Amino acid sequence: MKLYDLILSSTTCNHPDGIPDVLGDAVLVAENNIYRNIRQSVKRLGASFVPAWSEYQMSPLLQIDRIIKDKKIPYIPTLNILKQIEAVRPHLFLVEEIPSTTKSFHFHESCHVLAHDMVNPTLANGERDFALKSLLCESFANATESFATIFDSTSRCTTFSEYNFYFTTSARHKKNATELIHELGMNSVFRIILYSYIYANFLYKMVSYGDFKKNLPRILRGTTVPKKLQKKCYQIFLDGFALNKGFRLKTNPFFLRLAGVDQDFFKLVDFNFQNKIDRSSDLLQIIDDMCDIVEFGPNAKVVIDLEKKTALRKAKKIRLK
Ligand SMILES: [Zn+2]
Question: How many angstroms separate the alpha carbon of residue 142 from the centre of ligand 1?
Fold first, then answer.
């Protein structure tokens, strides 16, 4: 594809919630339901999008606290960068000829902002609780990206996903997931994908089909899956295990140490998190809320409740001043 055509395909689409400087962002907001749900939810909670500052470009991980606190989500102005290249030699370059891939991860960071508002991990409740909740936030961001790619409704959506997500999904996974959504509903399918990333972030190398089948009623909180669909559920559950090993073994432990955790990461995650979740009404509610945000976006009950809380906090601050 010519760079000129890629740019044209992005600039011919506008959406009031899109970021005009980011390649394909308005297209994804307009044509991908999940991308739009996350965008409109995070905006409803007061977040805004700003060009990435230099420290973020050096190390996004170091900036996550600032992003969550200020609710200013950084983006890379990828469209502007590509427009500049095109202007130097118009109609010449093919997209494949551009040496560095220009990506922006503001969707992933938006998921972190939403997850943090729901989960609120704090070291005050102990290192293990903090690790569990932090990994839950990360898993939400991973799973939502993966789930969103299933909803690329046009070929230009699929193209632009590659510029706005850490990873994209295989055609086979997309087909399986779409069929399952039709049979079981969005909530159940997202739940399976979310758990697959929780297992992966908890360093599970693999979960056997037998163990998955045993756990499925717990994951789906009692919803039964017809026998003929169980294998397909397992196939989409394997999605999370493709998560980069370096990320699982390096980034998560580094993030937790940075946040003040002293315990060894391997010891910290060595407990039955599924039991812990099943016994905690708070954690079960958080997972329900995560599924609702993905499905209902700004109209999810949790978003409306969080918006009210944010407004109350702001009013209190103003009164104190
Ligand atoms: Zn992340």
Answer: 7
